[in-house]
């Protein structure tokens, strides 16, 4: 069994090594974190917990420095170029739009070298954004944990219930293996995502998680307008059941007036929203249309019952 310049063993190992013996036998890496945002600080702490050495971290704001003190105690704080220079594994945890410029800047500064592993955590990007770094001989890997981060210690435990999207160059099995092993060391489950599917993957998470927050907050807003003092108490059991049922049963979990073909009830909703909360109306209509379409195609809503609902949602109210 041989080891290549990236510390990756060749042979017939599975893409996603999981046993404790496998993990203990992996070489320890010196990790540099750029930067100590909510994601980078937590992942840096997770990698340190798994046995890797934390070399240095980039942090500028007071919030970032506080995260270093709490999650990465003792880690030297250095400029990004110095963090990258001394690392075997360079972890780039920066906003999506900043990633390309950062990678190019590190290459221009001569901070990256052949044999390093460069990992970014952007969900929107695959490894194409790392091509300038790959051109100098680094191994490019994209890792995206499918969870929200607070930048607090409890995120380390939440990682154990999360998945991590792993993307490497096409046919780069070593890259996929390294990414998968790092995901396991973070405590998460690796999920392989092809480069060409990365944007669709990220759109799915954004639509399902980020837009869900907006939807829940608008529901709470409507309940407060209706005189409910504790909307979270009203919503929590219903939302928990809806989420569980949707993940278990898909579109068969759809309930409510649209799924029953209650056009009169839907019309009443549109009228009251138009009068009291008009900024919510457009979102309600669009989601109701999608709900009706999915309910009808899955057999939850009968076609003859759907006619009245579609008429109301198309402006007949």
UniProtKB/TrEMBL annotation:
Domain DUF2520 per the UniProt entry, residue ranges: 165-291
Family annotation (Pfam families): DUF2520, Rossmann-like
SUPFAM superfamilies: 6-phosphogluconate dehydrogenase C-terminal domain-like, NAD(P)-binding Rossmann-fold domains
InterPro entries recorded: 6-PGluconate_DH-like_C_sf, DUF2520, NAD(P)-bd_dom_sf, OxRdtase/DH_put_Rossmann_dom, TM1727-like_C_sf
The protein's name: Predicted oxidoreductase, contains short-chain dehydrogenase (SDR) and DUF2520 domains
Domain named Putative oxidoreductase/dehydrogenase Rossmann-like: residues: 23-145
Residues covered by region (Disordered): 1-24
Lineage: superkingdom: Bacteria
